[in-house]
Amino acid sequence: MSAKSNSFPKPMPIPTPTTKPFWDALSEHKIRIQYSPSSRRYVFYPRILAPGTLADDLEWREISGAGSLHTFTVSHRAVSPHFADDVPQILAVVQWDEGPRFSTEIVNAEPDAVRVGMRVRPVFTDYPDDGVTMLRYEPASA
């Protein structure tokens, strides 16, 4: 069943040829992001050329997905009618242990218990009717 909120279907991502490996990995409950040997670092968001070097050397590598909460905000007002049933919503940026940051949502946590710097772990949320798995995060202690 598709996730619904006040009868508005939630918008879902549409993979492109560049982002498809990321979404395919999520459907397997794994996280794969790009790594650039020329810059010796992980890269996110998916792209064609390595940032900084513009090398055509990006390769997909699996990461743990573990990280720390870099920043967050608690939204008490839905950003659109699609998310009306989701407030309060903890919108966040997670810093993966491998380096890049990822915009996401914190789930399975009370807003008052969330702190910058806290350890977090991935939560894979499947939307089978849409053929998409979304990556969210929860406190590592949950």
UniProtKB/TrEMBL annotation:
Occurrences of domain ChsH2 C-terminal OB-fold (ranges): 60-124
UniProt xrefs under SUPFAM superfamilies: Nucleic acid-binding proteins
One Pfam entry name: OB_ChsH2_C
Highest taxon in the source lineage: Bacteria
Protein name: Acyl dehydratase
Lineage: Bacteria, Bacillati, Actinomycetota, Actinomycetes, Mycobacteriales
